[in-house]
Amino acid sequence: MALRTILNKSDEALSKVCRPVEKFDQKLWTLLDDMAETLKKANGAGLAASQVGILRRAVVIDVGEGLYELINPEILDSSGTQYGVEGCLSCPGEWGYVTRAQKVKFKAQDRNGNWYEKVVEDLFARCVQHECDHLDGKIFTRLIEEYVDVEEENQ
Ligand SMILES: [Zn+2]
Predict the structure, then answer these.
(1) Alpha carbon distance 102, 1 (integer Å)
(2) Which of 23, 39, 2, 30 shows the shortest CA–CA distance to 131?
(3) Quick one: CA torsion of 64, 68, 72, 74, rounded to 10 degrees?
(4) What's the CATH code, domain 12-154?
(5) So what's the pLDDT on residue 154?
(6) Burial 59-85 (b: 16+ CB within 10 A, else e)
(7) Cβ atoms within 10 A of the Cβ of 94, count?
(8) Catalytic residue ranges
(9) Starting from the edge strand earliest in sequence, which strands make up the sheet with 82-86, in order?
(10) Per residue in 55-86, pLDDT tens?
């Protein structure tokens, strides 16, 4: 495993619509392993492949419930609203209140290409929505309703 460089939101890769993952091979597994390591090192909740310069629909999420790999994820259903502070590893120092669905049901493939479905709430749901936006080239800052100042050590 190796750390990958997390791109800043100003990098054009972050505004591109990512293509589906089609090959579930060693190259993908290495990418996913590297993304997991990079996410952990950065102390983040989620990371999309485009954030490390790979324009494919792959995401890793860890909100304290273990590591989840979402390949070609699709949100099937969402309900409720949550209003909370959100940040992004590609936007260091930028934090703001964003309204998201409280609960989402999504489907995704695992690293072997098997589809699964999962219903998640709260932070996990926020993270799924944030990362799926990345796959469509959308950055969360466009949704910020109110910016907040957060000290570096609290990120
Ligand atoms: Zn992000």
Answers:
(1) 34
(2) 39
(3) -50
(4) 3.90.45.10
(5) 52
(6) bbbbbeeeebbbbbbeeeebeeebeee
(7) 17
(8) 131
(9) 82-86, 95-100, 146-148
(10) 999 999 999 999 999 999 999 999 999 999 99
CB atoms within 10 A of CB 107: 14
Output DSSP code: residue 19: B
Which one-letter DSSP state was computed for residue 6?
P
Task: Please tell me the pTM assigned to this model.
Answer: 0.95
Give the SS3 label for residue 5: coil
- Tokens read off for 106: 């999504």
Using the mean position of ligand 1's atoms as its centre, give its distance from the Cα of residue 1 in Å: 22
**Ligand 1 center from residue 23 Cα (angstroms):** 24
DSSP character at residue 44:
-
Contact at 8 Å (CB) between 144 and 98?
yes
Centre of ligand 1 from the C-alpha of residue 132, in Å: 9
